[in-house]
């Protein structure tokens, strides 16, 4: 029997003795990250938030085997957040829907969930009414059966069979009432349950995974009491997709005890928070770097190259690379570099001649 075939299947249970220690660790990491963020200025908060949203949108689609253009996603996110962009911007209509869903789920986290809101998300995800080359039912619950299978034709392995379509409406009614209610579950636990509950119903023809992750982000935003996202759950799921699907499959073949699912969820969320904290340290380092340089006269090329050097420049900095990246002559590149050496910002490496290279001193 699948999970949804049991009586009162959504009355989930779990072993608190195994869950509470993990929940405590996650809450500690969450509080520490939010505390570190308080030391950032608006500019760096905007940068951190936009990078998080970009990562979340790209990763959530890649989990489903869909590769979005990173520059298009970046442009769409910046437009949605009202952030300034430079240079010509790509057309983003094909990625706007995926960005719109995440923005609405997180920025409007306090708004109640409804069938109509879910239908609006689904329509944004499939604006052409197609998934790839196939026409699907959009902005309505599915009207046919649904199986998750793998393997060649004739030797398929059924991993999961969703509830019959005639049960979907009633099941979604129950999920929405619970989602909007003042449930007894701790907010992070509620986020984990919502993800599982939604994918168990599998209410749409396609896009159920991405919709479930949007609901998860909505509840995590409620947990943070903030519309701004600074850690990416989807990024961690993408990094360990096999464990994600294994945790789902085991739970779907269970009897309503979701201990193993919640353990996976909390461990994955913990890793997301840790990774975000590591990235934040890099942002803080860059913020301190520019604070030290405040008042130092720098031209636009120098600011551009210093920014690249602080953000993970590949290889060694040479005059040739500077000239190529800034589209200037070698003489201009050398003057820019020597000026930074004179100001104590760059230092020449020991090797000289044609292989002369430079590194940051700050």
Give me the side-by-side strand order of the main sheet.
Answer: 1-2
Give the strand content: 5-15%
Low-confidence stretches: none
**Count of strand segments:** 6
How would you classify the helix and strand content by structural class? mainly alpha
CATH-defined topology of the largest domain: Fic-like fold
For this structure, what is the CATH class of the largest domain?
Mainly Alpha
Please identify which CATH superfamily of the largest domain we are dealing with. Fido-like domain
Number of domains: 2
| CATH 2nd-level architecture of the largest domain | Orthogonal Bundle
Sheet with the most strands?
A: 2 strands, antiparallel
**Average pLDDT, all residues:** 92
Estimated helix fraction: 55-70%
Question: What's the end-to-end separation, in Å?
Answer: 62 Å
SSE pattern, N- to C-terminal: HHHHHEEEEHHHHHHHHHEE
Report the radius of gyration as a whole number of Å. Answer: 24 Å
Number of alpha- plus pi-helical segments: 14
